[in-house]
Amino acid sequence: MRDRRPFLIASPPERLKALRQETEARVALGRTGASPPTRAVQTFLLDHAQARQAVWRPLDIDEMERQLHAAGADVVHVASRAKDRREYLRRPDLGRALADEGRVTLERQAKGADVALVIADGLSATAVEMNAVPVASALLNSLTSNGLTVTPVILATQGRVALADDVGAALGAKIAVILIGERPGLSAADSLGAYITFGPETGLPDSRRNCISNIRDGGTPPLQAADKIVTLMNAMCQQETSGVTLVEFENPVTDLVRLKTVSPVDALSNRETKGNPMDQRLVTVFDVAIIGAGVVGCAVARRFALAGAKVAIIEKGTDILSGASKANSAILHTGFDAPQGSLELELVKAGRAEYLSIHGQMGLSLVETGALVCAWNAEEGQSLEHIAEQGRRNGIAELGLLTARQARDIMPGLSDHLVAALDVPGEHIIDPWSAPLGYITQALALGAELLRNAEVLSGEFDGAWHLETTAGPILAASIVNAAGLYGDIVDARLGLVPDFTIKPRKGQFVVLDKAARRHVPRIVLPVPTETTKGIVVCPTAFGNVLIGPTAEEQDDRERARVETEALEALLARGRALVPALASISVTAAYAGLRPASEKKHYRICARPDRRAITLGGVRSTGLSAALGLAQHAVSLHESFGTQLAPPAAVPDVTMPNLTENCERDWQRADHGEIICHCELVTRREIEATFASPVPPGDFGGLRRRTRAGMGRCQGFYCNARLAAITGDRLAVPLAVSPGDHR
Predict the structure, then answer these.
(1) Torsion angles phi and psi, residue 361, rounded to 5
(2) Which of 122, 355, 368, 738 is least buried, going by the fewest C-beta atoms within 10 A?
């Protein structure tokens, strides 16, 4: 007999499953019997609870102020006339007006700023806490870099949208902007809204405002929202209106879009040229867009910002240094063995000289170890004289040939098999991650903007560059391709015929325990070959000893796998050179990729007719040459005919110390909780990096900024605590939630 019982569990049709991938709406949930599946019901109840919590939970004022201060903003706190949350929800009119105390507070502030920036809790404290600071920070950078004056950030509680009109009028601002939590829905409780009003006055109708809504991950990204706000503000200044009477231009997504022949400063000062609103010219948002936030890209961004350019740094990863720059030997080279007369030699020497001139004031590390180029057979011994002569021709005078005994007097741990050595006292080691972080931090302080998760997809040039990225469109007068492992691919996507092909070269490294450091006071360099500088035994700025890298060609540009056989060979080589290392345990092993090309030299190209510069094929010496490459890029850019005006003042930037040769935070009496006991990382250091201008985007970025989880246990004992502290502040949270199938 046919079984007529209904199916107890029914899955949605395949076409509806596909629809679910395109929307957060509750469609194609399936069923269990006659009811929705338990998971769908529980998710609904969770979303409903989160929506209620977003409405009723008070805004964390202290944390908001801390984050805004970290972004460089002054903060003034006010409240609406609504006395508490219940009254706020029942009496919307009270949320639109300043309390008397707030009005008195604003009376004490300076009047007549171009922009009044307000952040209010609105109907979702969650949205404000998650999204307001990134938008506000980007807005402040964009506005101040264009010479506009902005009020302190007015942090308002129990506020409605129209509260910004009261604030703007009280401060005499030309434009009022309010970032406010939107009414939460059952698919999003973290949606932020931005409302912009020209000529704010108390009692203006909603029709006088422009709105950007759904600012959040999964909606309008915060940086894109900030760009759109600036676009609207410039249109308002040109037309002297806002709201329904504002005419938006044909292409509003290119930031400062189309203005007449006046600057935004002139427009806000009502000095614009009158006439037909459509009599406009295209104004680029950025003078220079730099593709790639590796060590070279960060250095180039700093140098252009110091020259007065408005800079965008476009990085496809979740954090800076996420490509080739995350793995290197951290040596500050002299250029003694660079090809004579080469551009690489010139740039290494220039980069080294600038690093030595700025490292003290910027708090960048420098461990003056010196190096020994060691010959282990007669043939290599004969090469040392040639290397020394080449070094002297390269302008490196302090080179000395040593016998094996003289070399072992300097470094007693060297093997008895040593034949001879060349002393290179100018080779040093540095922290390879704090340096580029310092470069980009100073660039941001000078008004540059960093866009992460922004892979360049294509580009067109019509006198200015129109770039399409995964984070939205970008408009710039000039571009610099510093995309490292993807340099040739980026050139091709931009319609620039690549004159080189990247051939990724994998380098594997072994990191030994800090007990090895006493045996390796100097950098031990091999006699280089035509293809590689060879395997180095090198102290690190963090107290460990590094052995590597290998040199292995591969096609994959993303993944660099460590291999047991190669690591064992590295260990064997290190122990053969310094026998005492045989008793030292391994702390870590890693592999990186270098952007080698079919030729040994740097692949640098300037195309003045396309206003494009490519910095490609930068291999082992990239860390040393980065600042020199930046100088060279600015020099090449001068041929484009753009006149840049350096800023009147350069902000000081000092990076926190992570190296063993200077005081660390744990050595201070008030250091507080220590999270990572292997590397002695304090909670204060971890919190400080999240409050910094360039907070970590992923766990690797956090490790590089603090060294948490990089010691003997590799995070075994501290990762749970790190997961609790970092929460959802990283692109991929450390903690695994129920249903997370990573």
Answers:
(1) -70, -25
(2) 738
Which pLDDT tens digit goes with each residue over 532-591? 678 999 999 999 999 999 999 999 999 999 999 999 999 999 999 999 999 999 999 999
Question: What average pLDDT does range 69-85 have in this prediction?
Answer: 92
Q: How many domains are contained in the chain?
A: 4
HEC secondary structure over 486-544: HHHHHHHHCCCCCCCCECCEEEEEEEECHHHHHHCCCEEEECCCCCCCCCEEEECCCCC
Per the CB < 8 A criterion, the answer to whether 446 and 306 are in contact is: yes
The first and second tokens of residue 293, run together, are 């936030």
Report the pLDDT averaged over residues 208-224. 89
**Cβ distance 682 to 674 under 8 Å?**
yes
Q: What's the token pair of residue 713?
A: 């246990």
Give 618-660 pLDDT, tens digit per residue. Answer: 988 999 999 999 999 999 999 998 889 999 999 999 999 999 9
Residue 12: how many other CB atoms lie within 10 Å: 15
Instruction: Report the amino acid identity of residue 170.
Output: A
- The answer to whether the beta carbons of residues 97 and 160 sit under 8 Å apart is no
- Identify whether residues 174 and 227 lie together within a single domain: yes
Residue 99 pLDDT grade (very low, low, confident, very high; cuts 50, 70, 90): very high
- Direct distance between the N- and C-terminal alpha carbons of the chain, in angstroms, rounded to an integer: 46
DSSP string, 344-370: HHHHHHHHHHHHHHHHHHHT---B---
- The answer for residues whose C-beta is within 8 angstroms of residue 16's C-beta and 6 or more apart is 27, 28
Give the range of the structural domain holding residue 675, as residue numbers without chain letter: 665-726
Q: Read off the DSSP letter of residue 254.
A: S
Question: Residues 6 or more apart from 650 whose CB is under 8 A from it?
Answer: 306, 442, 446
Tell me how far apart the alpha carbons of residues 375 and 382 are, in angstroms, rounded to a whole number: 9
**CA 724 – CA 739 distance, rounded (Å):** 18
Q: Where does a domain end: 229, 253, 277? A: 253
> Which of 177, 172, 184, 151 has its CA nearest to residue 51?
184
Alpha-carbon gap, residue 582 to 313, rounded angstroms = 44
